[in-house]
Amino acid sequence: MTNAQSRFLTTVSCTCKEFTHPWTDSCANASAGILLSAIPYTLRVYTMVYALSLIMRHRIPSLADLKRTALGILQSSAFLVSNAYTFILINCLMRKIIGHYYHATIAFVPGFLCSFASILIERPARRPLLTLYVANLATEVLWKMGIARGYVRSIPQGQTLIFGISISALLYLYRLGLHKSTCKDSLFNVLRFFVDKAEEGPIVMKLTTTPSSTSTKNLPDATTIHTSNNNIVRSHPPLDFRSINVIVQLYSRFMEAVKSKHPSCPHRDNCWRYAFIGGIKPFVGGLGLQMGLRIVLNLRRILQFKLDVRKTLFDKDTLKLGIFLGCFSFVYKGVSCTLRHSFGRDDPRFAIPAGLLGSIAFSIYPDVTVALYVMWKALQVLYNLGIDRGVLPHVNNFTIYLYAFCSALLFHGGILEAKTMRPSYMRFLRGLSGERLNRFNLEPFNVYGHHASQQMKEISQQLNLINKTPLPKCSLASWK
After folding, report:
1. What is the rounded (10 degree) CA torsion for 193, 194, 197, 202?
2. Same domain, yes or no, for 278 and 407?
3. Residue 281: CB partners within 8 Å, gap ≥ 6?
């Protein structure tokens, strides 16, 4: 560890010209070149993003919507452009002030400063979404860095475990009904689609235990459930897990759940029909979403008649998302109903085992991006809940600092440890930089032990990032 720390304190005396802009002597020209090349790229990116958001509203946009969208595209593009060109500007400035490079000043510190400044340009309403996105990517980068250094190792189906714990926490809050007050978040609208509105909290049933009476002569420990409309219904007594007969009781109550509806169940149909029909809806939705995405992503090839539509849309991979969503919903509802039959009552805590068991279906569609997104959403919601309850401190501008830190990690990974980056984001960084990213001279920084130049070379070959011209876009070169 001491050797590693001392190595990171090693100074590298190469200039910013040798590192980031060998085609021009002027740092101002290098920054202006990225500015000019990033503008059309960011406009294309955000035009697609905002257009998609308009389409998802399922209504014809008004003139006010179009004006607001156009302003949003310009503001978001300005944010992303500034994030790109100020990185080179700050990098060159720090090199001139310090006189050499440290490990942190190559990418991390300039990345933090430029990201902190640029996020202030973006609309406050979009900052949490951007922070969640870069935090997702940065988590994956950090994990891969840990693997490369031998600090951690991959766990089989680790993404399923992350998804299961995170979704169970969110479902527990959903069953408590906190999503209506202190834990408001758009993700709960998605959960409502998968687990049904009937499972939405808070639970309105009140449980009391009454002694034997003429109406419960044969069930001396019967549980009386007072529903929200003051009707009184009788349920089974709680299970006695100290008895060997508990297995028989569990089986009988499971069969009862298949054939009937427990009084504490919030749905109307019998439990089997409720779980089965509830699983079909997400299956169809997931299948339709996957097919729609494939059509959009391959639209150009479809119009050119260069794509086998039947083979592309109806292969086994297209079914994976639908199967996962359908199975998750089915298992979650089935386990919830079985627990209500078994314990004779409804309880928000039932969402935890039901969510964990339902999450096993995630192994069918083991997407790391989805798992990390749900994890960060759960952390965000729990953090806000902790602030509301006075358990956690409120940090002013925490979202901005988190965005800057995670973006700095991505700058570091994209330059010095390219193998830790997600391929799609490497392509994004290269496009944003005007095809400059894999032109940086990383040879001087191999002293830090990352083999940065070799990593960049291998990733460029793997992703087919070929430099077709000797100069990048808008190079503003000062030499011939």
Report:
1. -120
2. no
3. 193, 329
CB burial of residue 407 (10 Å; 0-12, 13-18, 19+):
buried
Residue 149 and residue 7 in one domain = yes
pTM for this model (two decimals): 0.82
The verdict on 456 and 356 lying in the same domain is no
Whether residue 344 sits in one domain with residue 440? no
433 in the same domain as 355: no
Residues paired with residue 226 on neighbouring β-strands, in sequence order: 206, 232
Q: Report pLDDT digits (tens) over 249-299.
A: 666 666 665 566 778 888 887 888 888 888 888 888 888 877 777 777 666
Could you tell me if residue 385 is inside a domain?
A: no
Token duo for residue 118 = 């640029």
Q: How many domains does the chain have?
A: 2
